[in-house]
Amino acid sequence: MKRSPSPGPALRLLFGALLVIFLLPSCASAPAAPAEAHIVIFHSNDVHGKIDNFAKVAAIIDAERKSGDDVFFFSDGDNFSGDPVIDRYDPPGEPMLELLQRLGLDALCLGNHEFDYGLGILRKFAARFPTVSANIEARPGSFPELRPWVVLKARGGIRIVVFGLIQVEPNGLPSTLPEKVKDLRFSEPLGKALELKSLRSRGEVFIGLVHIGYEQDRLLAQKIPELDVIVGGHSHTRVDPAEIVNGVLVAQAGSDNLYLGRIDLVVRNGRVVEKKGRLIDLSQAREEDPGIKALIAKFHQNPALARVIARAPLEISGKNALGSLMTDAMRRAHGLDIAFQNNGGIRLTRLPLAITLKDVYTLDPFGNPIVQLVMTPAEIRSLIRSSCEKRTDIDLQVSGMSYIVRADSAHRIQEIVLRNPDGSPLAEDRTYKVGMSSYIASFYKFAHQDPGRSLQTTTVDDLISYLESGVDLSVYRDVRRAFWEEAATAARN
Amino acid sequence: MHVKMNGQTIEIFAGAKVEDVLRKYSRAEWALVRKNKKRVSDAYGHEIGLDGELNGGEEMVTETHAGAEVRS
Fold first, then answer.
1. Which of A466, A484, A438, A435 is nearest to A316 (CA)?
2. What does CATH list as the number for A2-9+29-300?
3. For residue B28, which residues of chain A lie inside 8 Å, CB to CB?
4. Domain ranges of chain B
5. What number does CATH give the domain B2-64?
6. What is the spatial order of strands in the sheet that A402-407 belongs to?
7. Domains in chain A: boundaries
8. Closest Cβ–Cβ partner in A215, A451, A452 for B55
C-alpha cells in the first residue's frame, strides 16, 4: 500500500494554496477507480503489551493478503502499559514496535498510554508508521512525525482518508502523566472532528481511527455522518458485530489482543456501498506465524527483568517492612503526606539482597494505579476501621504517619490513634494528601468527601523508581508503623 | 466522576476503570465477574473489559452470560 502522509503544520498553508491551483489537474490525472473493489481492514486496540496472540494475528492477515484482497491493518492505540515484558524492555516498547512492523501496520492512532514511555520513544513509533491524531498540537519541532490525518492508497487508486482523535479528560489532558505530554496541547476531540468533515472529498473511503471510547464513537457518528467507518478504542468495548450508527459503521475490538477486528468494505463507483464488521476470537484461531511466534518467545526472555536495580544491606522481609518500603515509594513519588498499602497486595515474604525487576513485579504484580484523596483525620480513621472490618489485626501499612488500633477483649475497635512520624498527633483541623492503590480506593468502604483522582502511575512503577534512586534500604530493618492493641495486650504494655 | 452501574449512581475517583466501579458497587458482583460467571456491558449491550477506561456519565450493567447458571 502506498501512503500519502498529510502535511505537517508548517506546510499546511502552502499546501492549501497549491491545492487551489492544482486541484482540477490533479483530479483529472488520478487513476480511474475500478468499478468495484473489496477492501479488508483488520484492527486492534488497547493491546496493553499482550503480545502472545500476534502470531495468530499475523497468520490471519497474511492469509487474507494471499487471497488477493486489498488488506490494511490499523492499530487504535494503547499498545503500551500492562505487561512488564514490554514495559521494561530496553528500550521500552521495542518488542511492540518490531511486532507491529512485522505485521505491516498501516496506520496508528495514538492512545493515552502511547505517551507512558515519553515522547522520545513514541517518536520512534511515529517514524515507522503513519501516526494520526488531529486534536494534538505539538510545540514546533517536538513531534514532527505526528499527522492529523493520512491518505492510504488502495488498489485502483482508491484513496482511504484516515484521521485520528485522542480522548481528553476534563483537565485538558489525556489519561497519562502530565509531565509526559508537557510539549503538547490537546483540544476536545468531537469539536475538533467537526473541522475534519471536509476531508470526505479527499478520498473514496473516509475513516475515523479514534481513541475516545465507544460512547464518544457513537456521538462522533451522529456529528459526522459523512464518515464511512469509525474504528474505536479506549473503552475496551467488544462490538460484535460492528454497529451502524447514523449510517456509520462503528467497530471496536475489546482489549488485550483477545480479538482481531475485521471490516469488509465494497467500493463501487467511487463510494462505499457495502460495509460490515465482526470480531475474530483469537482463542479459536489455530494457525500461527512461526516467525512471529519465535520472536514473541524471544521477547518473553526479556533480560531486563533479571537486572539488579538495588542492593539491600539486609533482606527486607515481612509485611511491615515491605509495606513501609512500598508506601514510602508512593509517598515520595507524588509528594503525598500519607500513603497506604494493604497487606493482601504484598505478594512476597522477603526481598533478596540483590533486588531485580522481576522481584519487584513479584512483590507487586497487580499494576494498580495510585489514587490521591484529600482526607481529614476522621476520614483516615474511617479507612483504617474499614480495613480491620473482618480482622483482628493490622491490614494497612502506612508511610507519613503511624497508627494504633485499640480494641477491647472482644476485638471491637475502641480507638484509632494517628501520629505524625515525630510522635505528635495528626492535626484534626487540617486535611492530608493521601495516596493508595485503586484497589483500596474502590474496595474499602470508608467515608471521604473527596472522590479522588488517579495519579496515572502504578504502585510498582513508583517502587521501581524509588529503588533505582539509591535510597538507603537499611531503614527497613525493624520498621513498624501500624499497631493493633487489644485490652489484654494493652494491659500488659 | 459519576457513572451508573445497574442503575445506581456511583461516585468514584477520576480516571477509574470499569473494575474500580464494579468493586465499589458490589464486592459480590465483582467476584462473579472475575469468576467469569457474569460480565459487564455498556448501555448498548456490548461487553466491556474490566480494564476499560471510563468517561463520566457512562452507564453499565452486570449480566449473566447467555446460558450460564449463576448461584450466588
1. A466
2. 3.60.21.10
3. none
4. 2-64
5. 3.10.20.30
6. A413-419, A402-407, A482-486
7. 2-9+29-300, 307-492
8. A215
Cell triple for B51 = 480494564
| 8 Å CB contact between A208 and A234 | no
Superfamily name with CATH number, domain A307-492: 5'-Nucleotidase, C-terminal domain (3.90.780.10)
Quote the CA–CA distance of A57 and A96 in Å, as a whole number. Answer: 13
| Burial class of residue A194 (count of CB atoms within 10 Å of its CB; 0-12, 13-18, 19+) | exposed
**Do A369 and A454 meet the contact criterion of CB atoms below 8 Å apart?**
yes
10-residue mean pLDDT profile of chain A (493 residues): values are 50 42 40 79 97 98 94 97 93 96 98 94 94 96 95 95 96 92 95 97 98 97 98 98 98 98 97 98 98 97 95 96 98 98 96 97 95 98 92 92 94 95 97 98 96 96 97 94 82 45
Are A372 and A453 spatial neighbours (Cβ–Cβ below 8 Å)? yes
Cβ burial A341-356 (10 Å sphere, 16+ → b, else e): bbbebbeeeebeeebb
Residues of chain A that touch chain B, judged by Cβ-Cβ distance less than 8 Å = 46, 48, 82, 112, 167, 169-170, 175, 213-216, 218, 234-240, 243, 252, 254-256, 369, 371, 373, 438-439, 441-443, 451-454, 456
The DSSP-derived string for chain B is: -EEEETTEEEE--BT-BHHHHHHHH-HHHHHHHHTTSEEEEETTS-EE-TT-B--TT-EEEEEEPTT-----
Could you tell me how many CB contacts below 8 A there are between chain A and chain B?
A: 98
Q: Residue A186 has which C-alpha cell?
A: 490537546
Question: Are residues A463 and A326 in contact, defined by beta-carbon separation less than 8 angstroms?
Answer: yes
Q: What is the pTM of this model?
A: 0.89
Phi, psi of A456 (to 5 degrees): 65, 20
Nearest chain A alpha carbon to B50: A236
Which pLDDT score is estimated for A191?
97
pLDDT at B71 over 90: no
What is the reported pLDDT for A390?
A: 72
List A185's β-bridge partners, or say none: A137
Task: State the complex-level ipTM.
Answer: 0.91
Is omega for the bond preceding A91 within 30 degrees of 0, making it cis? yes
Question: What is the Cα–Cα distance from A61 to A42, expressed in whole angstroms?
Answer: 7
Mention every residue, 6+ apart, whose C-beta is less than 8 A from residue A299: A51, A85, A86, A89, A95, A99
pLDDT at residue A3, rounded to an integer? 55
CA-based R_g, chain A, Å? 27
CB A8 within 8 A of CB A141: no
| Cβ atoms of residues A387 and A395 within 8 Å | yes
